[in-house]
Design a protein that fits this description.
- Helix content is 35%, strand content 18%.
- By secondary structure, it is an alpha/beta fold.
- The chain folds into two domains: 222 residues, Rossmann fold; 33 residues, no CATH class.
- The strands form two sheets. It has a six-stranded mixed beta sheet with strand order 6-7-8-3-9-10.
- The chain binds adenosine-5'-triphosphate (ATP).
- The site of adenosine-5'-triphosphate (ATP) has 10 residues, from helix 1.
Length: 336
């Protein structure tokens, strides 16, 4: 049911540019975590370090019981097979049709017979809603379809960990919502650990179980979705409110005098809006890693802001949760 990722004291520089300084976090097994941060804070560098494409200067990256930066080449190769990675553009080969693109890791890394390859490829294409598009070339399909093809390819080796770099880049909000539903349903079906880098605040608010925010070479905060969505931290409030007011500046952090001037003017990043309900898996699917709405708030004595967990239909998801889980297990809808 997915593998835990434990990062301890991660430090990474390129020449004199320090990207990460002593960063530690645990990405829980089987859950969906989202990583946010201003542009250039090293989110992609972090994903590449997790999969062993970049070597940190210092620190540990535990994948289960293996410390990735200290693995010999053969063990590293084996450990990488635990990962599925979806890069921003899907990273498809332009001259291959979708079937061959998605079959590529199976043909490259396994000795499976072609009939088995076909079975797996079609199964994954169905999971991401691409059945029937096997013969299309990447140049003939939309950006959203490219992402889903890249996702199918990331899934063919049955990963324990799925890393996704900006799945919403270049997608309209509706396609982004559909893709997020694919992630939720996939997580219910395969139970892998998901880590998704995104700039989309709506995705961050509704998709994950956990949110992390990178800022100034450190992790400003990482924890359950509810914790960040009710945070008082100015940097968290500024980012989640997409506000110009707060510590984050255009290219780097603002200095003391700018922040003092904002405070004198009474400017503030603003309070965060009510916590929205988390996106649910489609009918018939149940996610093992999903947090019941309000569980973190209850455990930590935090009163959820008014309106939290109440959806568009006026349903209170704290009260509905046990009924929801039971109805999903039976394949019915909670509203029915
Ligand atoms: N291989 C490399 N060599 C030198 N510098 C690099 C390398 N890879 C990344 N960087 C630098 O590291 C910094 C962080 O880059 P990264 O792509 O991880 O940022 P990001 O947070 O993902 O940004 P964005 O949100 O804009 O995609 C940037 O300044 C980038 O130029």
């Amino acid at each position: 049911m997915g593998v835990e990722i434990r990062v301890e004291g991660l430090t990474k520089s390129f020449g004199r540019q320090v990207i990460w300084q002593d960063v530690s976090l645990t990405v829980p097994a089987g859950e969906i975590s989202v990583l946010l941060g201003p542009s250039g804070t090293g989110k992609s560098v972090f994903l590449k370090s997790l999969v062993g494409l970049l070597k940190p200067d210092r620190g540990h990256i535990w994948i289960g019981d293996r410390d990735l930066p200290r693995l010999r080449e053969s063990k590293l190769y084996e450990t990488r097979k635990l990962f599925g990675v979806l890069f921003q553009d899907g990273a498809l080969f332009g001259s291959m049709n979708l079937f061959d693109n998605i079959a590529f890791p199976l043909r490259e890394h396994t000795r499976k017979r072609e009939s088995e390859v076909k079975r797996i490829v079609l199964e994954k294409m169905e999971l991401v809603g691409l059945l029937g598009a096997e013969h299309k070339l990447p140049g003939e399909i939309s950006g959203g379809m490219k992402k889903r093809a890249g996702l199918a390819r990331a899934l063919v080796l049955d990963p324990e960990i799925l890393l996704v770099d900006e799945p919403d880049s270049g997608l309209d909000p509706v396609r982004t919502a559909f893709l997020n539903q694919v992630f939720i349903d996939l997580n219910a079906q395969i139970g892998a650990t998901f880590l998704i880098v995104t700039h989309d605040i709506n995705t961050a608010r509704t998709l994950p179980d956990n949110i992390g925010l990178l800022y100034q070479r450190h992790l400003a905060m990482f924890g359950p979705r509810e914790m960040l969505l009710s945070s008082e931290e100015p940097v968290v409030r500024q980012f989640l409110n997409a506000s110009k007011i707060g510590p984050i500046g255009m290219s780097e952090e603002k200095d003391e005098s700018e922040l003092e001037a904002e405070a004198r003017m009474g400017h503030d990043p603003g309070r965060l809006p009510p916590i929205p309900p988390q996106q649910m898996p489609s009918s018939g699917l149940v996610r093992a890693g999903m947090h019941p709405p309000g569980a973190w708030c209850a455990a930590n004595g935090v009163t959820p802001p008014p309106g939290s967990f109440v959806d568009d239909l006026g349903r209170d998801w704290v009260a509905e949760w046990p009924r929801y889980v039971a109805s999903q297990a039976q394949g019915t809808d909670v509203g029915s």
